[in-house]
Amino acid sequence: MTTLSTTLAKRLEDPRLFRQYAYVNGKWTHGEGGREEAVYDPATNEAIGHIPLLEAEQITAAVDAAEAAFVHWRALRADERCERLLAWYDLIQANREDLATIMTLEQGKPLPDARGEVEYGASFVRWFAEEGKRTYGETIPSHIPNASLGTIKEPVGIAAMITPWNFPLAMITRKAAAALAAGCPVIVKPANETPFSALALAELAERAGIPEGIFNVVLGEPAEVSKILCSEPRIRALSFTGSTRVGRLLIEQSANTVKRLSLELGGNAPFIVGPDMDPKEAAYAAVAAKFQTAGQDCLAANRILVHESIHDEFVAQFTERMAALTVGNGLHGEVDLGPLIHRQAVEKAAAIVDDAISQGATMVAGDQSQAPGDNFFMPVLLTGVTPQMKVWREENFAPVAGITAYSSDDEVIEMANDTEYGLAAYIYTHDIRRIWKLMRALEYGMVSVNSVKMTGPPVPFGGVKQSGLGREGGATGIDEYLETKYYCLGALGSVSGS
Ligand SMILES: NC(=O)c1ccc[n+]([C@@H]2O[C@H](COP(=O)([O-])OP(=O)(O)OC[C@H]3O[C@@H](n4cnc5c(N)ncnc54)[C@H](O)[C@@H]3O)[C@@H](O)[C@H]2O)c1
Ligand SMILES: N[C@@H](CC=O)C(=O)O
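# nicotinamide-adenine-dinucleotide complex -> structure
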């Protein structure tokens, strides 16, 4: 009998990339308790496969395996780990089309976007393969007679990673490649909505020669698995990307084992348009910054703040551009927006729109009768958005754009900072004084000026306030997985200067 999951496998050039097991200690593993969960294509609501839900002892077995494997992995030279990571990078690139197909089927994003994410995810593997060779310590001028002082960098230990469904591949590689390059074994818990990208990465890691126990993918009931990972003292670092709500829970649950925490949490990005801007240029950029991944992006422009002098023309241009966006199944043809991840996300988006309208916002566009399926949400434009509305206060994580007019730089700074979040902000203006003033005053970890694209391997990605702790990528991303060991070599023969 042909099942939908065999149909998925048949779409792939290499069907072995589609795995319906967890991956622990180099073995494909089913759940010992027999529990499993279906994974759905959000575009059609059809089950595309099943995953096992592991039992507590199986999660602990993954930690045992990582602990055993750590001894050898950390002992490799940095250039030896680099070779394995570069092999992984090559395999990800070589299997780009299959990885994109898997991603579109489980996440819903259009195939071109999925291909872009594979490329983006792979770029972190190459970056950290190289960075692993540059984890320098330092020499410290000694204040102690006849002693030499310095530091060396050592891997922190087993690193657990809990990742979201909106970027099912890149959110894993940005963490895992850094940890592996630093010499740490990794245990990944992907979102249950999008496990198959993670499992395909595990298959490719094995082919790349990453030893058993070093890259593990555990699956299970999220709260259950996370509790075990947080309370396990042998796990020394926990890196999480997801909502601020779950991030807070993980901080609490990790307190007893005092782990190294890296948290990439929610955003509520302001998109500020100055009075000097061409309304059309700014509106087109705002549409791009709002609707990628159907608005399910931590960097999505959530509050669009436009100077009152160009507000009406900006709204007209935005409306026109938004009307040209196509919504549909990401597997088919040229589609700009795929479905939202599930029905609850659609309901949340509808509630945010209703809340705004009930508090006086105007809905300029967004006819939901045109939605091509249960999980689709047509792009919505709201004007007259105010700070009391959910669309302002919450990360809507949907294709809902809210526009507000402002009258001065000081006012827009106050508006932009009026949130518990502080991940990313956009500024559109060509006035250098305004750019500098806004860029310095915005309480955000990342500020992008006149550019929608801001991310990539060389960039220290991360937020302030309740958008997170730590930075991923860039020159410091590997530090999240390294300890600094200070040494004092005393009673040495006298050497010059000490
Ligand atoms: N800052 C960033 O880099 C970044 C990047 C991508 C996504 N995000 C954020 O992620 C969120 C969307 O992703 P999401 O809906 O998957 O987030 P989420 O917090 O619901 O889930 C993230 C991960 O946590 C797990 N999880 C869910 N409930 C849990 C619980 N009670 N205990 C322990 N683990 C639990 C999930 O299974 C998943 O693996 C948005 O807020 C978005 O801004 C942030
Ligand atoms: N687009 C972000 C992911 C946020 O959801 C990234 O580049 O990391």
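# post-check
The longest helix spans residues 111-131.
The pocket of nicotinamide-adenine-dinucleotide (ligand 1) is lined by residues 162-167, 171, 189, 191-192, 222-223, 226, 241-243, 246, 249, 264-267, 298, 395, 397, 423, 463, 468 (CB under 6 Å).
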